[in-house]
Amino acid sequence: MQGIFTDFGIDYYLVGAVARDIHLSADAGAETIRKTNDVDLAITINDHDQYNQLKKALVATGHFTPHPTEAIKLFYKDGIEVDLMPFGEIEGPNRNVNLTDPTFVLNMPGFREIYPFVDDIIVDENFTVKVCTMEGIILLKLISNDDRPERTKDISDIEHIVQVYFDLYSGDIYEEHFDTMDLYDTVQNDYLQLVCCRVMGRKIKELLNDSDQLRERVEQILAKRPTSLWQAMHDGMHDVV
């Protein structure tokens, strides 16, 4: 896929469960129980024609077949579901993407904001993959759950990330956000989780620095869940760092 993306002048990054699992794989004790074989790719797209031509080029390789009704979905070797999630110039002013082959409407808040911050993960000496940051994953899950509250797995995924975040990113917390260690009482059972949520809030704020409307929406999402951990994340979005 990467070669075809290059031919079309398209960039991409991994999102969703695969991106989450790549980050979690840095610590054996952090791995999630819920696995998936689906691959979600956020891709930079200029217009509908470019998107449709890209899909045709992928199908022409013989490795991909299109989904009959979902315009963003392809099947790789009749097994792995691959979602091509377009963002960028193709977005309308309301962040909607209206696809035409077949007709399909997506709302894409957050994808454009995350793009400048993606991580380059080295798979081997000849292959590097771009992956959504962990804070970007949390941001998208907050929005997804707000749009569809019945998606409780988004909340359980966030809760799992909170539990393992310190093991994954303690070095960054000590070096860049050490002041958060003094903001909470160490005798609290969830002391480390509070620290982590505060740092997450700061990093989500950084992602949304140039998107006031979306930042306000995320703050409202967090304010609707008055728990200490979500409040810490909300507070982090108001820190001046």
Describe the largest sheet: 5 strands, mixed
Number of helices: 9
What's the shape? globular
Q: Tell me how many strands there are.
A: 9
Mean pLDDT: 92
Number of domains: 2
The radius of gyration computed from the alpha-carbon positions, rounded to a whole number of angstroms, is 19 Å
CATH topology of the largest domain: Beta Polymerase, domain 2
User: Which percent bin holds the helix content?
Assistant: 40-55%
Describe what you observe in this structure.
With 241 residues, the protein is α+β, with helices and mostly antiparallel strands. The protein folds into two domains: 131 residues, Beta Polymerase, domain 2 (2-Layer Sandwich); 101 residues, no CATH class. The protein contains nine helices and nine strands. The strands form three sheets. Strands 1-2-5-4-3 form a five-stranded mixed β-sheet. A two-stranded antiparallel ribbon has the order 6-7. A two-stranded antiparallel ribbon has the order 8-9. Strand 6 and strand 7 form a beta hairpin. Helix 6 packs across helix 7 and helix 7 runs parallel beside helix 9. The longest helix has 25 residues. The protein is globular. The N and C termini lie far apart (39 Å).
